[in-house]
Amino acid sequence: MQFSGRRKKLIGNLQNDLYEHCLQFYGQPPLENISLTEFETFAVERLKLLKTVENLGVSCVKNSEQYIKKLDAEISSLNFPNRIELSEQKVPGGISEYEKRRKDHISHFILRLAYCQTEDLRRWFIQQEMDLFRYRFNYLPSKHKTDFLHKNNLKYETVSSEEKKNLQDRLIASSYGLSGTKVEEFDVYKVPFQDALDLVRTRKVYLQAGNAYIPHQEIVTIVLNDFRTRLSKALEVTARSLPAVQSDERLQPLLSHLSHAYVGQDYSIQKNIGKISLEQIDTLSGKSFPLCMRHLHKALRENHHLRHGGRMQYGLFLKGIGLSLEQALQFWRSEFVKGKVDADKFDKAYAYSVRHMFGKEGKRTDYTPYSCMKVILSNPPSQGDYHGCPFRHSDPELLKQKLQNYKVSPSGINQILELVKGMHYQLACQKYFELTHNVEDAGFSLNHPNQYFTESQRFLTGGLDIKKEVDMSQRNQENPANVTRPSQANSKQGHEEMGDLDSFFQDE
């Protein structure tokens, strides 16, 4: 294997420099050659880890004992770094910590190539990487957190014991979850207030002389904001290298396969198109629509109009459950005409956008229904809007009233509101599913409104046999081992040396 002088120097110092910490911001691309087999293995195993992160995020309360136990087990089984120091080089019978960190580094950059291609892919990748980063950072020892901050030029000052003692009462009053003993035991960071606007806005920190005093458990918020900004920018840069990747016959099929195999079902594929009649929609909305779509349907029926955000969110959902283009045009026209829009105005101002959703106008893109993540993270609704996630964007009292109107039990409402309070919005929606379908465990991890509808229909029409089918489908979807690896079908190329990854990230 041949390396230039620059690469020789870097590779020789990897263990003492690039991989000296078990966590990184992935600022420096890999500069070594790897085989296609290793390229693919690293990518598949990191995607399996990220898929576990996603599933646990919607099936367990984050940082709960169950969440920690399962994620710990997955990180260990896939040989990714977690909490081990580099000096603790090797577990008997396992690979060295250095090799784990190398795998973590290279696999992250490989997935950038696969997940930089569209906005939805970037959003999914950023969210899972952030959740993984948050988990790993939270369980670093205090010294390692400080070392990580300094290594990445986040040189926030730790407050001295004397200053903490002087400010103890103010820190306790302004910082959630602190007690007098904890103030003495744990680090507090002094950060310029402009770097902690999220914490300042939510009144979680003490401000003095232009600085925010950040308790140790809240510093992750600032680090995550920095991580998100860097990764988002890096994915945009990587996207500019796509023509070079797509021209490589070895990589293009693999990256395309990886980007579609793990983010869930593509609900733009119309297997049942036309099988949902317009007369069924009102009934289905009460039985099988998630709360966000039930809310939009009710608003449309009452106001006979939805703004653009609501039309896109609801229109693509209806498309995903089987409404044809002709039915969609009839549905939206009949509703708008009941309001202040006559038929001619609808045909001139709104019909184009409906055809556009179905890929019949403009760039002819066959748009995909919004996932839960996109609904939660997209622009929040303003006054007069009805799109978004009710668990994320509704006032708790209004949400409580809505749930009462839909006959959710008081104890069930309290369970949902507790999950909302902890910002577990998908878990709250899944609890809503369980309460409205009278099941203790839905048996799936909810990540898409159309998935909610599909699972509801199976529960309502299929009974136990269908439930078994759902469980099997979920296991197949969540187990990357069931997915064929394209490059292994051409195993002759499996050990071929490919060029170093630096060429794909050279603009960074």
General description of the model:
This protein has 26 helices and 6 strands. It has helices spanning 5-12, 36-59, 65-77, 97-115, 119-138, 142-151, 161-166, 168-174, 180-185, 197-201, 219-239, 242-246, 252-261, 281-287, 291-303, 308-321, 325-337, 343-349, 351-357, 372-377, 390-393, 396-405, 410-421, 425-437, 449-478, 486-489; strands at 34-35, 157-158, 188-192, 206-208, 211-215, 497-498. The strands form 2 sheets. A 4-stranded antiparallel sheet has the order 2-3-5-4. Strands 1-6 form a two-stranded antiparallel sheet. It is globular and about 70 Å long. The chain starts with a helix and ends in a 10-residue tail after the last strand.
Structure summarized in a few sentences:
With 508 residues, this protein is mainly alpha-helical. The chain has helices at residues 5-12, 36-59, 65-77, 97-115, 119-138, 142-151, 161-166, 168-174, 180-185, 197-201, 219-239, 242-246, 252-261, 281-287, 291-303, 308-321, 325-337, 343-349, 351-357, 372-377, 390-393, 396-405, 410-421, 425-437, 449-478, 486-489, and strands at residues 34-35, 157-158, 188-192, 206-208, 211-215, 497-498.
